[in-house]
Design a protein that fits this description.
With 153 residues, the protein is of the alpha+beta class. The protein has a single domain, classed as RutC-like (60s Ribosomal Protein L30, Chain: A, 2-Layer Sandwich), CATH 3.30.1330.40. It is 30% helix and 29% strand. The protein contains three helices and seven strands. A five-stranded mixed sheet has the order 1-2-7-5-6. It has a two-stranded antiparallel ribbon with strand order 3-4. α2 packs across α3. The longest helix has 22 residues.
């Protein structure tokens, strides 16, 4: 049965990837009570890793598109945490976004807006969240990594 989130994804022309497997010695998510803590999801699409460095060889728009992919991977992990039933998602609580950037790059929030805007488009008010956006050197040269905290039923 299709739920409202699946319908909204389809209306936006978006699909969730399979929940990515962890790349090291950690789990993709932890459930504690009604809270799901999702490990950092790196920017990737069907072709592979989305690599780049903001302020060097990647535009803010390209970075925001990479952040959108991270948001979709976060939702895929929440769906896995909910046993495939994304209708259990009550709200996005907090995102922490990391942007692979040069020392003089200052538009980290604009990049992470790619994830925030997507979650609000999909979830409405339940997608509004607290957030941090910082610069970092990221693993494998990816452009963006985002971790999230979600409330589920």
């Amino acid at each position: 049965m299709t739920n409202a989130i699946d319908s909204r994804l389809a209306a936006l022309g978006l699909t969730l990837p399979d929940a990515p497997a962890p790349a090291a010695n950690y789990v993709p998510f932890v459930i504690s009570g009604s809270t799901v803590y999702v490990s950092g999801q790196i920017s990737m699409n069907a072709e592979g890793l989305i690599k780049g460095r903001l302020g060097d060889n990647m535009s803010v728009e390209d970075g925001a598109a990479a952040a959108q992919r991270c948001a979709l991977s976060l939702l895929a992990q929440v769906k896995a945490a909910c046993g495939g039933d994304l209708s259990r998602l009550k709200r996005v609580v907090k995102l922490t976004g990391f942007v692979n950037s040069t020392p003089d790059f200052t538009d980290h929030p604009k990049v992470i807006n790619g994830a925030s805007d997507t979650l609000v488009e999909i979830l409405g008010d339940a997608g509004r969240h607290a957030r941090s956006a910082v610069g970092a050197i990221l693993p494998l040269g990816v452009a963006v990594e985002i971790e999230g905290i979600f409330e589920i039923a």
